[in-house]
Amino acid sequence: MTNETQSRVDIVRQFGSDLGLPKVDVDKLVETHRKNFEALTQTALVASNGLKSVATKQKEMVESAFREALDMARNFKPSGDPQQILAKQSEMSGRVRIMSFATSPPAGVDDCVKPSVP
Fold first, then answer.
1. Which residues, in sequence order, are CB contacts of 58 under 8 Å at separation 6+?
2. What does the pLDDT look like over 59-84, one tens digit per residue?
3. What is the Cα–Cα distance from 48 to 92, expressed in whole angstroms?
4. Does residue 84 sit within a domain?
């Protein structure tokens, strides 16, 4: 056979055969990658559901903290001794600070969820 009558594919096949390269089972290769893609899809779904669960829990915690802070502010009636008023305000600010720490994400999480700004 001459080079003019052989197709390029035939030339590559002949070259691979001459080198003793193993034949590629394309169907098996496609099936393997399909399974990998399905596993990746399932992993992404699980991660997405986990993130949704965390976001829902944080939303509930923030709403609860706001309700509690609002109740404290509504029920605060400054009267009497200025030292008692200051002590009550300090107590309230401490409780609000604790609530804010409880509802903030762990260190490093902000870097993962911030949108990129062009």
1. 103, 105
2. 888 888 888 888 888 887 777 788 88
3. 37
4. no
